[in-house]
Amino acid sequence: MKLLRFAFLIGVVVLPAVAQQLDPSQSASTDDSMPAALAGRGVRRMPLDERATANYVTGGIAITQMYTDNIEFSTTGQLSDLSYSIDPHIALDYSSPKLSYDAAVAAGFVVNRKLNERNQATQNGAFDLSYHLSQFWVLRLDDSFRNTTGLWSGSDSAGVSSVSAGLGPVQQPNRSLFTFGHFRENTVLAELSAQFSATAYGGIRGEQTHTWFPSGASDPVVGALYGGNSYSAEMFYNHQFSRRHWGGVTVRAGRYDLSQSLGRTDTGSLLFMYAVALRPTMTLSFFGGPQLSVTSASDAVTPVPGFQRRLWSPNAGAVFSSETRKTSESLSFTHGVSNGGGLASAVTLDSADAQVAYRIARRVELGPGFAYGESTPIVSSAKFRSYSARIQSTLRLGNCSFSSGYSWDHRSAEASDTAAAANSVWVAFSFNFIRPIGR
Question: What pTM was computed for the model?
Answer without folding.
Answer: 0.85
